Fold this sequence. Notes:
Layout: E1 5-6, E2 30-37, E3 41-49, H1 60-64, E4 67-69, E5 72-76, E6 82-85, H2 87-100, H3 108-121, E7 133-142, E8 154-164, E9 175-179, H4 197-201, H5 204-212, E10 217-219, E11 236-241, E12 244-247, H6 258-269, E13 274-276, H7 281-290, E14 293-300, E15 304-313, E16 316-319, H8 327-340, E17 351-353
The structure holds 2-OXO-4-methylpentanoic acid.
Amino acid sequence: METIxxxxxxxxxxxxxxxxxxxxxxxxxxxxxMDYSTDKGWYDPRIVPYGPFMLDPASMVLHYAQEVFEGxxxxxxxxxxxxxxxxxxxxxxxxxSCERLSIPQIDEELFFEALxxxxxxxxxxxxxxxxxxxxxxxFVFATEPHVGVHxxxxxxxxxxxxxxxxxxxxxxxxxxxxxESRDVRAVKGGTGYAKTGGNYAATLRAGEEAxxxxxxQVLWLDGIHRKYIEEVGSMNVxxxxxxxxxxxxxxxxxxxxxTRSSCLEILKSWGVPCSEExxxxxxxxxxxxxxxxxxxxxxxxxxxxxxxxxxxxxNKHHIIxxxxxxxxxGKLYDYLTGIQWGRIEDPFGWITRII
Length: 355
Ligand code: COI
């Protein structure tokens, strides 16, 4: 494995107020960068001062959106140590996204070393205030200057890091979700299961409209029948209906969330009945109307466990659990975050200590 060269900036940045981090607004002193060319493969892995890239205006990512990304967090433990959560899952998913977007695979060991070295170098940026962490954003994009449509012959793989608090302004308070029936996010056979920018670009129009109407996010229906619940762009969704937890199955158009699968594994270990099954929007609304929809929450690295207090569909508001966080949602939040921040022992082997 090639060694990672490290260059430091001449002046270090001032750290932001840990109580006002928000999400993804501040970036650390360093970033990881590595190049790819067809002749050399991936080469020159390095940690450099955080700063802009110089890009040819014809770089293929700017025209055909050939890019993928990931999101994971480094957590500060009470004993001062730092740990990652299910890092191998994020690395493997990024390579699956690369495969879908015809981007060359990245060596998994080098990927892990890159994450670890960046966190070590920028360790003072891992915040310790409650519910804060260092969000790591690996991404790859096509750099070949060419406006013909084909897979690029050159790429940059980079990792940037951002100290973050809660993703939603609501924090752990329930969010209001708008079920979209005009736009769709993804279709089977498309790129829905890959973490690629185009999936998110397609959601912005509906997202902006939902936001104007006072909703935090859009809940997407499947692109073909327009009736099956899929996901919320920035998170997967889980519902507790009549005592059982259900979440839509991964059929190719939904992101295989690491937090989603962690929720399912934790719930199973607790003996809570749960299953991955198709759920129609009509069934969801009937469950809400009859009071059988007991709890709903979103799951994601950025969103963690985000209770859903209201869904809006077909001009009607449906309040879930009186608009308050559900008992199981709260228990899951405490347990998952307990493992992530090292407050609870990890029985699943999900944690990797870095420092
Ligand atoms: C994540 O949860 O890490 C995401 O990538 C979701 C969003 C911030 C795009």
